[in-house]
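We were asked to recover a plausible sequence for a given structure. The inputs and outputs are reproduced exactly as logged, with field labels preserved.

PROBLEM: sequence recovery
POSITIONS: 407
GIVEN STRUCTURE:
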């Protein structure tokens, strides 16, 4: 997604339609490639290649956008300025911050070294390490295959367990499941934050014989001894060490330093402090936020962003026209939980953890159809419709599918 979008416009434009062509967009970005990250689970699972998940950044930016190949190094919201890595200062009238989250592998001692040196230590979270996962799955012989979930907010909270289910599937196919302990160690007290889907996932865990350990946080990796050390979050002085044959690590995450350290813009956890229904910054009305870097209390996913973009578009223009904003965002997010090669639970929910299902069948049941949606349809939806501004979430289709009833 875009990282930081600095827009200027001329406020005397009478109508939005006339105003649109006069909006000047500047995007400050430093990555040369844009990744469709939801595909990383399928890459780690061996069903797609990394090349299929990336495009040149320049090719996905909309026409008329001025791309500044630089990074934001300081925000100065009182003076409406952003300082960049090359020493420039950009002034703005309105700003949308969409910087995502940083992957902090370095905060777990020994993890970076293990990822660099040990072919059996991998992570779907980084394009650098994701291709190691399927190789490790196939090279696995016997012992513990450990999957971790850190003690921080993460993007796609389902991804750390999806790869455990795909690994279980491969192990069975390759006839080595009986020699493996597939272990999911999560810092959370439950397997998933939404009750309905947590119940379905617990059935999956039981059926597959996966060892689930809650409140376990990875604090050290000793690759020379093939040991992973966890703290018990209910009793932090207690450390539990497991021998691993394969380790899939989900790193601790935070907002990028430039945002985290700008106290005027963030909440106590370092996330962009915005109104959860309008996406407008709580102190600076000319700043909006979208995506993983915000403190929206919902799951951090592309699916959530698709709905957020609709609200952002509406409210940014209302703000520019000096009109009252509309509290439109209900926290919609979604996570296609692959529970095997051809089965998926399509979780969709709101801020309160209430299901907001698009299809008129029980999406809590593992089914084949959502698997094909995830593998075959969603990548096209992303490249062709979301990045081009034509897809703004399934809201209207949900109503249609439910014959106008429900939310
Ligand atoms: C393994 C995995 C599986 C996932 N599965 C799913 C799924 O099934 N469904 C789903 O909907 N979502 C899924 N997601 C989550 C989804 O990919 C993210 O929620 C989404 O990409 C977040 O978009 P974003 O724009 O907020 O952040 P990002 O996509 O991370 O973009 C942030 C951008 O900001 C740039 N940036 C950062 N700092 C600076 C700076 N200082 N200056 C300039 N630019 C900067 C970065 O370079 C980056 O380009 C998954 C993610 C992963 C990793």
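RECOVERED SEQUENCE:
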């Amino acid at each position: 997604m875009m990282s930081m979008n600095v827009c200027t416009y001329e406020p005397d434009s009478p109508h939005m339609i006339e105003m649109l062509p006069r909006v000047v967009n500047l995007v400050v970005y430093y990555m040369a490639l844009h990744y469709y990250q939801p595909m990383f689970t399928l890459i780690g699972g061996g069903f797609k290649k990394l090349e299929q998940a990336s495009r040149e950044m320049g090719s996905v930016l909309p026409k008329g956008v001025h791309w500044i190949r630089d990074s934001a190094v300081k925000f100065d919201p009182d003076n409406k300025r952003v300082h960049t890595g090359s020493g420039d200062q950009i002034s703005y009238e309105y700003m949308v911050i969409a910087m995502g989250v940083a992957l902090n592998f370095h905060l777990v001692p020994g993890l970076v070294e293990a990822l660099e040196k040990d072919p059996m230590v991998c992570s779907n979270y980084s394009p650098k390490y994701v291709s190691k996962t399927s190789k490790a799955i196939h090279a696995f012989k016997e012992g513990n295959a450990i999957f971790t979930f850190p003690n921080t907010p993460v993007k796609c909270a389902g991804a750390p367990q999806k790869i455990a289910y795909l690994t279980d599937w491969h192990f069975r196919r390759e006839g080595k499941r009986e020699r493996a302990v597939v272990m999911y160690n999560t810092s959370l007290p439950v397997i998933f934050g939404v009750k309905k889907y947590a119940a379905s996932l617990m059935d999956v865990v039981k059926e597959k014989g996966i060892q689930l350990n809650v409140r376990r946080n990875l604090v050290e990796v000793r690759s020379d001894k093939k040991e992973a050390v966890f703290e018990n979050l209910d009793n932090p002085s207690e450390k539990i060490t497991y021998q691993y044959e394969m380790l899939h690590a989900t790193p601790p995450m935070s907002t990028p330093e430039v945002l985290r350290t700008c106290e005027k813009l963030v909440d106590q956890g370092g996330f962009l402090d915005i109104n959860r229904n309008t996406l407008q910054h709580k102190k600076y009305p000319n700043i909006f936020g979208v995506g993983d870097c915000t403190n929206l209390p919902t799951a951090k996913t592309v699916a959530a962003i698709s709905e957020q973009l609709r609200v952002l578009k509406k409210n940014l223009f209302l703000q520019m026209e000096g009109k009252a904003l509309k509290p439109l965002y209900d926290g919609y997010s979604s996570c296609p939980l692959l529970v095997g090669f051809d089965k998926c639970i399509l979780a969709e929910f709101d801020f309160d953890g209430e299901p907001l299902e698009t299809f008129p069948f029980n999406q809590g049941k593992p089914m084949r159809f959502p698997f094909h949606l995830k593998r075959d349809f969603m990548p096209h939806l992303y490249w062709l419709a979301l990045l081009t501004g034509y897809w703004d979430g399934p809201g209207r289709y949900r109503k249609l599918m439910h014959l106008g009833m429900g939310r």
